[in-house]
Amino acid sequence: MIVSPKKIITVCSLFFCLLLGVILTSLSLGAAKIGLPHVLRVLIHHAVYFDSPAGPEGLIILYVRLPRILLAGLVGAALAVAGCSFQALLRNPLADPYILGVSSGSALGAVSAILFGLSATSFGMPLASFCGAIITVMLVFHVGKVGRGLHTNTLLLAGVIISSFFSAIIMFLISVVQNEDLAKIVFWLMGDFSFANYRFILIILPYIAGGMVALYSYARGLNLMVMGEETAVQLGIDVDRLKKMAYIFASLITAAAVSVCGLIGFVGLIIPHSVRMLFGPDHRLLIPASALMGACFLIASDTIARTIAAPTELPVGAVTATFGAPFFIYLLKKRRV
Amino acid sequence: MALIDVKEISFRYANQWVIEDLSFHVEAGEFWGIIGPNGSGKTTLLKILYGLIDPQRGGVFIDGGELRQMRRPDIAKKIAVVPQEAQIRFPFTSFEVILMGRSPYLGRLQFEGRNDFEIAERAMRLTDTLRFSRRPINELSGGERQRIFIARALAQEPEIILLDEPTSNLDISHQVEFYDLISRLNREKNLTILTVSHDINLASEYCRKIILLKGGRIFKMGSPGEVVAEESIRQVYGSRVLVDENPVTGAPRITLLRKDPSNIGKSEAQAK
User: Which strand (E) or helix (H) includes residue A149?
Assistant: First the structure.
């Protein structure tokens, strides 16, 4: 059962095929029913001639559904990988990407953007939410820093406390300030992909891809980390550095993901667990497999969110929890037997 | 040149000195025990010996190189540590845990190769752990888990193995089995062993040199016969003991005595 490059490639290829299947299925589903053959025809035509698609169906596929699906996939992958990293960093299987307060910081940023009228521009809210998240990350880092390294328990406490402090400010702002735009924040807090476009994807892609590659380069170190900090030192790991890097990059990809779509829960918690139950805890396989499975899961959830009660859209965060929780419980039960 | 040279080290947490002006040196192939009461600085000393913490004064030299100047992977190639008890929440298999011992030899993105698998397998054969190589580490018994940690230490191909109260959670049969194994590795592989122990009898039985710590200083250092004496034990631990010889091996053996002699015989009377 030892993780080898061959095993990683096999598992990831399988997940990649699954991902393609999910993407194609999702492209064909929606208010306008478009058959799978037609979807394929549009995609191939576009890939070959790279021109504007003919007909409304082509437009729907390429400019409405595809960017949304790609964004959901990217965010799903980011949250899943951030979840893996935080679970290893804190040596706590219950950790998720929001545990250290990134979520509250980005929410505060988003609310501020609305109050200062920045949300009128398409970049205002994502930018403000990203800044809010990064400021929180730096604050928590500063509090959790002890001597050369990060103290995990202090980090955890700092995250929780800063998080509730920011939540209080958000509540205060929402209740005091009269602003019609503030309704947007409700959707944002539950996760929303309806504003997806290619520009968002291009902006967050470097952060998320770069962050994931950086985290993957620490995969073996993270394996030793979950065995205990002292054990990792005994086995030759510079733990102080590893913790800082894992914290910074996992926070960065979380911040990037959250800034474009709001707070989507559950992905970062259940995906790493599911993959660990299926393929073991080695991060060299866990990280890439979680990324692909997270992408599949969030695309599927968003597809359900936009189709199940059409024309009304459900918040995608509600869908991930509704479908994720039973699935997770099933996995837990299956493992115990 | 000594393999481990500890030169006048002092260490403090905040304002409290826990190790004070401590010096000794260990030659290759020796088997040392570190004993002393709770809070005497045993575990702190061990942490200093593999560079987890640096002493504020003095230094530790391994093969002539100062520990604080060495890179972590280079330390891990020379020194392996067997922990007391590890709480592991992630279900790595035993073989995966042993392979982690190869970590200091691997590049950041490098995978274990044939050579690493062979070394891990040899370590498992030496520790008789091949049987449960596929079982998750968190499902093993305490004795089995400690053997896995020795195997992991061996996979590091170190010159020195440090043990931190390795048998404190094991029953007597596993304690003896554990130290027999360590003792064999010491003899056959010429590994240098330093073990921190709460059990004076075990230390005196297996170690050839013993350091008795009191309040972060060396109270006495030498062969078990020199260190394990009624008077030293009384002065360091504050308890009266009887020292005689293990009838089989001749190693010094302590017998605990009650602090309140008036109770002696009472339990016997109650039993009747």
Answer: strand A149-150
| Each residue's pLDDT tens digit, B254-265 | 998 887 766 666
Name the pTM for this structure. Answer: 0.89
Is A276–B90 a contact, with Cβ atoms under 8 angstroms apart? yes
User: Which of A1, A231, A235 shows the shortest C-beta gap to B134?
Assistant: A1
Q: Cβ contact (<8 Å) for A227 and B80?
A: no
Distance separating alpha carbons of residues A249 and A238, to the nearest angstrom: 17
Contacts of A218 in chain B (CB under 8 A): 108
Which amino acid is residue A202, in one-letter code? L
- Domain boundaries defined on chain A: 5-336
- Taking the CA of residue A247 and the nearest CA in chain B, the distance in Å comes to 18
pLDDT at B264: 62
Residue A225 in contact with residue A236, Cβ under 8 Å? no
pLDDT tens-digit profile of A139-190?
998 888 887 778 888 888 999 999 999 989 988 888 887 767 667 777 778 8
- What count of other Cβ atoms lies within 10 Å of the Cβ of residue B171? 12
Looking at this predicted complex, what is its ipTM?
0.88
CATH architecture of A5-336: Orthogonal Bundle (1.10)
| A5 Cα to chain B: minimum distance (Å) | 8
